[in-house]
Amino acid sequence: MVGARILLESLKKEGVEVIFGYPGGQVLPIFDQLYDFGLKLILTRHEQGAAHAADGFSRATGKVGVCLATSGPGATNLVTGIATAYMDSIPMVAITGQVGTHLIGNDAFQEADVTGITRPVTKHNFLVKDVKDLARTIAEAFYIASSGRPGPVLVDIPLDVQRADTEFIWPEKVNIRSYQPTYSGHPGQIKKAAKLISNSKKPIIYAGGGVITSGAALELKELAEKLQAPVTTTFMGLGGFSGAHKLFLGMLGMHGTAYANHAVMESDLIIAVGARFDDRVTGRLDDFAPGAKVVHIDIDPSSISKNVRVDVPIVGDAKNILLELIKEIKKSPDTTEWLRTVENWKKKHPLTYKDDSAMIKPQYILEQLWDLTKGDAVICTEVGQSQMWACQWYQYLTPRTFISSGGLGTMGFGFPAAMGAKIGRPEKEVFNIAGDGSIQMNIQELATCVANKINVKVLIFNNGFLGMVRQWQELFYKKRYSYTPITSPDYVLLAQSYGAVGMCVTKKSEVRAALQKAIETQNTVFIDFRIEPEENVYPMVPSGQAINKMIEGLA
Amino acid sequence: MRHTISVLVENKFGVLARVAGLFSARGYNIASLAVSETLDPQISYMTIVVEAKDAKVLEQINKQLNKLIDVITVTDFTNKEYLDRELVLAKINYAPKDKSKLETIFNKFVGKIIYHKADVAIIEAVGDQHQIGELLNELDKFGIKELVRTGKLAISN
After folding, report:
1. A174-212 b/e (C-beta count within 10 Å ≥ 16 → b)
2. Which residues of chain B neighbour A300 with C-beta distances below 8 Å?
3. Could you tell me the pLDDT band of residue A157, with boundaries at 50, 70 and 90?
4. Pick the CATH number of B82-156 from 3.40.50.1000, 3.30.365.10, 3.30.70.1150, 3.90.1170.50
5. What's the predicted TM-score (pTM) here?
6. What is the nearest CA distance from B85 to chain A, expressed in angstroms?
7. Which of A32, A307, A347, A490 could be cross-linked to A277 through a Cys-Cys bond (beta carbons 3.0 to 4.6 Å apart)?
């Protein structure tokens, strides 16, 4: 069997049903096999779109996303998508063609050192130099991508390896002696944590993306209810705890709710579950939660004590550890007084916006979207103001309903990711919350959506600015709007020219009807919402400040 | 402060780049690095000497090394008993009359002459960091024209 065929057989063995990709000279044998193999390839209009779509597919389903590109520029176009997945610990396998082994290092046509380029942004990568290693390498790639702390793995396959012939031997089990992730938490550490929890008076649960990766949402809910402890999530953790639960405080950090930030700062115990104390969460580190002890549950030992000093680290899988921890906690703390304090913060500092403008407020669109869907949708986002509003003004009830580039903050992620999500969850309504800046970064995927009848609904919050940068310029650079005003095409005509449906909404009174129409439309829809141009995202913690030093201005 | 770390890795192409990349990506400088095969040809042994400004940086270095897929074990020799050696070759200014002076030095410190001609001698020395330091101080008096060092090798005892 030739290498190209072995690759596809291996993908089949891994249960892959769909891949996202783009052909080219150094993957011709693979595309030739794809012609009648029975594995679906979604032909994107840019390799970056393929990488984000594979990522979005993975985030929506929990499965490993797969993308495929040719050597050189095809592969380098994947890099932003790979880095995006890496920063958010998304399991993905990227397959790239490479020039023939005899040409590697010769500056051959469309040659790039792709394993070199992607080394810092992949969990691991491989260059397959012998076809006999191919099947095992693919098995290892999927194993590494999906186990431990997940992440993207790249497999670079030279042209001659794709053509070379060997027997297809599929390894039923993968064992890598140098890679043995820890899944169960140390019992002694769990006991220590349980004791700290029982003795706490003001505990708070701080949950991150690890809860979603590990499938620990039920266990998290059980722990929160058992302790009667308030829960805040990171950006990546949204959906890991129901946004409608009375113990939920929303997201914390730079654009988190004021009450979540106050609660964290005043707590005496932080129970961190699958979160990494990112700088957007902690603000000024020296001032972060000064009175709190920290229990940190994480599968990646290098996340522990990286930013914040930890009192009880527990390395392992969040679900396993939460199950054990719940059993181990004999006495729940009395949090009545604490919850009352938190409730007061909620009343005193609610999330709010001034809805008095003739212009459409972005928050209003999200409120209407919530009202129409009640959380039964997948919300993808681009990056910037629209993304932050989507975190604040929509309630995520279940895991994998919020899909957004967190760590890397990649503009242009949302639309192709929404495409991948829709393919993974065709029964769900999938929205992309976009700004007029971000949507123009991968807008070519309109063609992919229409050609494949991937009906995603793109809500463009069009304010004529690169809004988040403009907001920083307004607040910290004396309103010198340097290169942040941005023009857009006529999105209605643009959508129509691709065969999609375009709408333009300029009045508040038309928002709900437009959303309703988008939901009912069996096609990809672009809605161009002309929103208040200088609306800001609040609350906001200025860079380098403690997270309870928020600007809460009503815009 | 300098720390000595040994790392057992899979003997594959690209592994050194992964290890080196881990340091460079974080702006940590490698003071010395020695790599070679072990008894098992599939495994290589690296001795890395690294500058870490505090315990937190050192902890991250250890954890990040462990996180690399091709790394089998990491041993941080800080607070551990170990022996270390380094091989040094030094090319110094030399005149035949220096021979007895050099022999006196070699009676006291490590080192020997492995080559000499009219005006140049090459000295070989194997020792720990302290011994090598002392020897180089002495050789400096003759004028060191060129110096090559293997970097530290460390083994637990």
Report:
1. eeeebbeeeeebbeebbebbbebbeebebbbbbbbbbbb
2. 67
3. very high
4. 3.30.70.1150
5. 0.95
6. 28
7. A307
